[in-house]
Amino acid sequence: MAGITSRLKHAWNAFTGQTESDRTADYGEYVSTYSGRPDRPTPRFQNERSIISAIYNRIAIDVASADIRHIKLDENERFLENVDSNLNNCFRVEANIDQGARHFVRDIVHTLFDEGCIALVPIDVTLNPNQTAGWDVLTMRIGIITSWYPDHVRVSVFNQQKQRREEIRLAKKYVAIIENPFYTVMNEPNSTLQRLLRKLHLLDVVDEATSSGKLDLIIQLPYVVKSESRRAQAEQRRTDIEWQLKGSKYGIAYTDGTEKIIQLNRPTENKLLEQITYLFDLLYSQLGITKEIMDGTADEAAMINYFNRTVAPVLEAIVEAMRRTFLTKTARTQGQWVDYYRDPFKFVPISTIAEIADKFTRNEIASSNEIRTSIGWKPSKDPKADKLENSNMPAPSELALRKRQPIEEGDSQNGSSTRYRQEA
After folding, report:
1. pLDDT, tens digit, for every residue of 269-308?
2. Could you write out the DSSP letters of every residue in 171-189?
3. pTM
4. 35 and 103 share a domain?
5. Domain range for residue 105?
């Protein structure tokens, strides 16, 4: 009970802990309701309506498939154990009341690609960060940076209590600032992605104009339209034909025998689609993505290359920002670390898992239970399954018993002795 009281006494919230100069204008004490999720950042207009969102979603799902953990290292900087902390809970169970761990990571990637630079804002922490550095994150949300200061940033982040986004100013040492590793490819004003978005927007404009329902007709009248009276007469003739087509049940109109109708609603030839195809191929190559990865037919080598060139840099940017912000120098000195791990058997065909498992257990790299849990099977209750032993070789205790085995016994009274098998 005393621990809970102390936690409530020293707990700090990013919104309630603000000073008057850090807060935005007060909108009143009320809670709004929404038909959709108000905490979800709104994507940019072009990204939402284009097929670029499919690329974002593919990378976000693959990034979220890796496990981000708060761990402890040994003296050789090797993985020792997971740390039972609230930060670990944010990336293994839930980051806030609205988002689970995987959902939160996908949201990080989507917002990072759309904005170029975001901030992971610790909303609820155990201790006041203005008074001590030994605080732990309880809940966190994604903030969109709106202003930069020498030591602070102003971020737009969702306020759970008021159910709306608010702008607050926080010190840079409190928030984990993440920059898109593909910023020059995605977010620069004249980057490959931005050029592709503009071309796709132009293609949408052309498609809408082509399918707008216009007839694109030219009426050739049997007289020269140069004077004001002739132009007025031609305008009246055009209006009459429009009225006939609009008022007719089947869209039929009549013309004079001397008039000629020319239809122009044929697509004009341009290089827009060719340029879009070129930019798509260029974007895929710069991001390390292939068409086979997008449609799920890529082989193991292509997936490994995609993970190393595309997914791993995004994961490194996320964990690196958390290391320098959510772990103090003392914690890092004690061996605490934030890192990511992925399932090594995820891209391995089922036909080769048995061979890999045999090599791992035979060379005492992994125990039988570690192999079983990695492929989704429950551990065996046999104590031998948790030991790093080669099952094809006899145990050391068996070797000791087999070192001297009698192969011939003689009569001790007649002077004969027993011979033993010599083993290496």
Report:
1. 567 888 888 999 999 999 999 999 998 888 888 988 999 9
2. ETTTSEEEE-TTHHHHTST
3. 0.72
4. yes
5. 2-182
